[in-house]
Structures are given as C-alpha cells and as structure tokens.
Amino acid sequence: MDENHYTTQEWNIDKIRADFKDAIEAAKKYKLQLFCGEWGVYEPVDRELAYKWTRDMLTVFKENNIAWTTWCYDADFGFWNQQKHTFKDKGLVDLLMQNE
Question: 16 with 56: CB under 8 angstroms?
C-alpha cells in the first residue's frame, strides 16, 4: 500500500461506508452485532475536519447499529485533560453525546 494512502484520500461518509461494507454485510448475514472500538481523530487535526469526520463515523454507526467506543478520554486522541480536570475538546464531547 502506498505510504500516502491515508493522507491523499478524502475520508468522507461515502469512503467510511465503503470501508465498513464487508463487515456490515457479514454481520447481517450471520445476525451478529458489530462493535467498532478504538477510533478517533488525532488531536493536532483541524477541529472542523475532525468534527466532520466524527459526525460521518457516528452516522454510519447509527445507520448500521454498530456499537462503538473511542480510543481514549485523555492523551493524543482524547477530550479530557486529566491533570487539569477539565475538557480539552468540549466540542468533541458534545458530538459524541448527541448521538446517544
């Protein structure tokens, strides 16, 4: 695979749906619950792009009844500053919570 594979493609909702297609079809065929663990956006990514991608992921999860969890609540993909006991990214928390 090309080393620029992940940085040269547009990762929109259609790409996400395509990436999940095989797993969704297998889950339907065998009547299985899908679970997507450890997903998220690296902290230095532009927040508007990160929020758009997060919304797209949550939409695909909801459309296909995919259970999910994000990578972590602290560190490079997180939304919480454990040392300061405050949000690093309240916008991300709001996005994640409105999908419930």
Answer: yes
C-alpha span between 82 and 98 (Å, rounded):
23
CA distance 15 to 59: 13
Distance from the Cα of residue 19 to its chain's centroid: 13
Give the Cβ contact number of residue 15 at 10 Å: 13
How distant, in Å, are the alpha carbons of 2, 8, 89 from that of 84?
A: 40, 36, 13
What would the pLDDT profile of 60-81 be if each residue is shown by its tens digit?
999 999 999 988 777 777 788 8
pTM: 0.85
Instruction: Identify whether the C-beta of residue 55 lies closer than 8 Å to the C-beta of residue 22.
Output: no
Which of 76, 70, 72 shows the shortest CA–CA distance to 36? 70
